Amino acid sequence: MVKIYATGAGFVAGGVVLGILLEKILLRFFIKEAAKTFSKVDDVLLNSLKGLLIFWGALAGIYLGLRYLPLMEDQYKIWHRVFLIALAVSFAVLISRIIIGLIKLRISKTPGLIPSTTIISTITRVIVFLVATLVVLQTLGISVTPILTALGIGGVAVALALQETLTNFFAGIQVIASQQIRPGDYIKLNTGEEGYITDITWRSTSIRMLSGSLIVVPNSKISSANLTNYYRPDKELAVLVEVGVSYDSDLNKVESITVETAKEILKKTAGGVENFEPFIRYHSFKDSSIGFTVILRAKEFTDQYLLKHEFVKALHKVYKENSIEIPFPIRTIKLQQPYLEDHG
């Protein structure tokens, strides 16, 4: 009896060892070779096998080892069913990995198709495992028709109970399908929150603020919110800097010096659009200055902060060298002669 159990344990151990050898040596070798090829499909297929070869080796060892154990016929049937279920689950994992990998590969090769988000992976896994479950049940001789009927009837109750969850789920799908926002985009909500979209899950959208904090917003709120996407249709954006100069200033000279300074800053500052021609527009007579706007251009939203920083420093220095005054807020009061005579 001890010899029988030892033989069974040996098959299990041998299966595990075989799986480890296949995974750590053979699979790793093929993955390295696949990385050298032009096609990425083979990379997806081989990487999908990670961890499964060891599991299949152990499963094969258990299956062979059980044949040496003195089990009753009913016990063999039970173990056989367990083996089929485990095998079906492992193949479902493999198929879902392959499909998700191919979807991500397709997305990476076709910009603008659909964003690669958690919700896509979740939907794929749910569908694959649902199909695998139905196949296992049918294989085990369990009719799936009553189950499908029960699911159809119970689906109404579940939908009512999970109304908010389902609302967020379908809102997430709508957000992805509309392609108005994608992971990596910088957005600002009408409620004031802003940052980079990091992921869109089945329930919520994650937004990372510039401070590093993470905002989690339900998908239903995202789909109904008024928001600004600073990455659509183009990442580049105009950067407006408000400036004021003294009424005594030569405006032509101010314009020339300001534009030249802006050009230099765009060329030497990271995030500036080098080939953009900056310009200014005078727009108002203020209490103590003539106001105008300098228009620069940044490569993306967050680049504007460094651009403004460098431009203000450079412009202050150049104005000082050229005796162009940036006046303090002042108010001049002129008194009429009769007032002076009455109060002199």
Strand content: 5-15%
Number of helices: 11
For the sheet with most strands, the description reads: 5 strands, antiparallel
- The gross shape turns out to be elongated
H/E element sequence? HHHHHHHEEEEHEEHEEHH
Q: Give the helix level as a range of percent.
A: 55-70%
Q: Total strand count, please?
A: 8
Mean pLDDT: 80
- What count of domains describes the coordinates? 3
Terminal residue distance = 126 Å
What do these coordinates show?
It is built from 11 helices and 8 strands. It is an alpha+beta fold and 344 residues long. The strands form 2 sheets. The protein has a 5-stranded antiparallel sheet with strand order 4-3-2-1-5. A 3-stranded antiparallel sheet has the order 6-8-7.
Please outline the helices and strands.
Blueprint lengths: L1 H34 L5 H7 L4 H15 L6 H37 L8 H22 L5 H17 L1 H16 L7 E4 L4 E7 L3 E5 L5 E5 H6 L2 E3 L7 E9 L5 H18 L10 E7 L4 E9 L4 H19 L15 H7 L1
Antiparallel strand pairs: 1-2, 1-5, 2-3, 3-4, 6-8, 7-8
Summarize the entry for a quick read.
The protein is of the alpha+beta class and 344 residues long.
Offer a few descriptive terms.
344 residues; alpha+beta; SH3 type barrels; Alpha-Beta Plaits; 3 domains; five-stranded antiparallel β-sheet; three-stranded antiparallel β-sheet; 58% helix
